[in-house]
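Quick one from the shared queue. A colleague (R.T.) flagged tRNA N6-adenosine threonylcarbamoyltransferase as missing a structural entry in our internal table.

Convert sequence to C-alpha cells.
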Amino acid sequence: MSEAQITRVLGIESSCDETGLALYDIQKGLLGEVLFSQIALHAPYGGVVPELASRDHVRRLPLLLEELMAQSGGQRPDAVAVTAGPGLIGALLVGVNFARALAYAWDIPVIPVHHLEGHLLAPLLNGVAPFPAVALLVSGGHTMLIEVRGLGDYVLLGETLDDAAGEAFDKAAKMLGLGYPGGPALAALAEGGDPEAFRLPRPLLDRPGMDFSFSGLKTAFRLVSLKVPEEDSVQRSHLAASFQQAVVDTLFRKCQRALQATGLKRLIVAGGVGANRALRDALQSLTADGVELCIADLAHCTDNAAMIALAGALHPEMAQPASAEFPVRARWSLVKEET
C-alpha cells in the first residue's frame, strides 16, 4: 500500500498503565476510541507494577478491539500505528506484537510511533495546527521544553535535571499519605488551600536557562510536611496548594523564557500534568501577551490511543510490512540538541 492510500489508521497505546485503541481518519477525524485504565490494579502498590501492567494489556487489547470495531461500525483501517517507545518495555512489546498480528491478518502496514510525539500532536485532535511553537511536555516521566519547527523537527530547549514534574507531584502526594495516582489527589487537596501559606523554593529560576529541577523542591516539601500534623486538614490543604503553586510558577516562568528566546507566539502544552487546572489557568494568562495556547482536551492530555492513531496518519512514510522488524525502546529521544 502506498503512502497516499493510508487515510484510516488504527492506533494502539500500551506504553504504561493505560490500554487504548482508536480509529482515526485524516478526512473525517476521530471515528472512535476506547481506553482502559489500570489505576485500580496498581493502587494497592502505590505505583505501576510493570509485570502486572503487561499482563493486563494482554487481557484487555482483544476486548477493546471488539468494542472499538462495534463503536466505529466495523470499519477496517489502512494501517496500524502503535507506540514503539518510550515506556515500560514489557508493556510496549505487548502492544507492538498485537499491532503486528492485526496488520499481518489484515494485510496492512504497521507504523511505529514515538509516544512523546503523540502527546505533542494531540492538540490537532481539536483541529488546532500547532506549528511552529514552543512545547511544554510535562508528565510523570518527562518535563522538557521543545521548539517545534515542524512535523518531526524538534529541538530541545530545556529539560529536567532530576525528577519530572509529574513524578514530583506523585512523591509529594505519597509524603502526605494520599492515594494513587498521587498527582490528581494532591491537586484535589490543594483546592481551597492558600498557595502562599508555606514558602517553598522555585528551583533554577534564579539562574539563566530553561532546564528544570524538582528534587530540591521535593526535599523542602518533605521537611515542611513533617511539621504538619496529619489531623490538621487545613494546613495540609495549604501545604498541597503551596507545593502545586511552586511547580506551576516554575513551569510558567520557564515557558515565558522559551517563548522570549525563540520569538514564537504559540505554546503547546502536552502530557498528563497538562490536565492540572492550576497550570492551565496560569498559562492562560499568556494569551494577554498575544500567545496562542494549544492544549489538548482533558481526555487526550493523559495517555491515549487517539494521539497515536493521529501521529501514525501524519507519518505514512514510516509504514512498513507487518513482517518487518523495528526497535521497541524503553528510552527514545524525541529531540535533537541545538548546536
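The mean pLDDT is 94.
DSSP finds ten helices and eleven strands in the chain.
Added to the table.
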